[in-house]
Amino acid sequence: MPVAVVLVGGGLVLTLPVLSHRLSRRVAAGTGSLSLGLAMRRNEVEPGSALRVASGLVLLVFAASLAQGVLVELNQVSRPNTVQQDYRVPLDGIDAADEKALTLLPGVKGSVAELRSWFDPNLDEPPPEISATVATCAQLAEALIDTTGCVDGKVMRLTQVGLPPETDRPGEVYPFRFRQGSRQRTVTFTVPHQEVHFHAHALSAVDSAILVPPSMLPEGARPDSSTLVLTSSPDPAVVREVLDGIGGIAPTAEVDLVGTNVEGMQQIEVVKALLGAGMVLGLVIGVAAHLVSVTDRAVERRAQVTALSLLGARPRTLRAVQCAQVVLPLAVGLLLALVTGKLTESSYLITGGGAVFWDGEGIPLLLFSALGVVVVAAVGSLPLVGRRVNPELIRRD
Does the predicted TM-score (pTM) go above 0.70? Predict the structure, then answer.
């Protein structure tokens, strides 16, 4: 893949003179404008000048298109392709006030609690365990795609549509241990026959066996083993906001982002910053090099410009000629760079196993940058035609 990228970039630059020559010849043959005809005839005679003027900026846009693909794949690797982000926060050492504050954090749109059944550690063979989701029907609906058959105030069995239930033995009794002040209290729940059918997100933290309404828990008691499940939007800014909020309330809590690689998200931010700085620096250097090249060409053609002035060409016409002969190869090269860069990006995503092959997130920015470069190049070429005729520039054959 790297070799292919290099070959495509090299072929893109080497194709510019050929495209500029053929396009200039066709436009010059069909146009009735004096300034456009002169500009196209110059590009037809000297097609290699397009390589000097546009190659740097064309390669820059091509590299920007490819960099967009790198960011897309990094984002796929570090983040799940889902509409919801779940957080699992163990409640060990977190009191009721902090738990309430966690559910009210900015960006959090829902929360449920998950309990693990208790067993006597002195037993030779531990009995089977189950997990229980403590939530109302409304809270459960916020954490899942949809639910069917939920009734508030009743213990119900959770069954995900298309999957077997976690426990298929209704009637079994499971104990749950709570702390109420200095005392330990055990509450038992029976696996019911009545079921709640639900559709979960691709990466969901809700995988319990039974649903327990909060009203059936002992008032003022804290479970021995429980986890708070928070939900939010998967937007990176929202995820960072929620993580910062959790860190402010429970700095020692181990937060599990379901399906998300936190280190990968941090690396993406670093890569984005580096690529952004590199592209801005490359754009400034490329535009500066482009203006220097245009100035150099204008100096080389001073004798031709002087001859045209003596023949009666107005300065406005000569400026239009200078602008057209610069803008045309640059615009063609930038458009070709956008197309080939997008194709190369998609090839990179396919070979990398990406789930998204065609993305349009970076296209508006690239088009805006390319348009800005063309405008700067056009404006920079206008003052290169002087107002006065210098007799020293006239040569006799």
Answer: no
